[in-house]
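User: I'm putting together notes for a lab meeting next week and I want to include a structural view of one of the chains we've been expressing. I don't have a solved structure, so I'd like a prediction I can at least talk through. The sequence is below, exactly as it appears in our construct file.
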Amino acid sequence: MYNDKKSLWFHIYSVNERMIIQEAFSGLNAHEAFSKNTDGEECPISRYYTPEQFASICQAAGFESIGYKGGYVSESELKSLHKYGKIALEDESLSDEHKEFLRSLVFDSREMPLYLGKNAGIGGV
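Assistant: Thanks for the context. Below is the predicted structure for the 125-residue chain, given as structure tokens.
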């Protein structure tokens, strides 16, 4: 499962670094670019879900006990955050949605970014 709008991959890597700085994914919106930027641009299917959407899919498949177990931040996300995080907050071409996500991040004792108390990376289980 890919974590969608609650991830550094979406806000800082896909939108800020790839779309704005590198000018990749011309003509695509942020969600389309995110999908192209996960398993490679030629991958025919790349799906992402909110935790609620994924829980609903699991319930429909017959799973009885569903809950967030954890997640991870990729090396690409961390590099992008450290390299562009402060610059992104001042970039007029980055929308308020993405800036608000970045402002909301807190860091745990290992300096790993959290959003709303959960790992702020692309991966969730």
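A couple of points you could mention at the meeting. The chain has one domain: 8-23+31-124. Residues 8-23+31-124 form one domain.

User: Perfect, that's what I needed.
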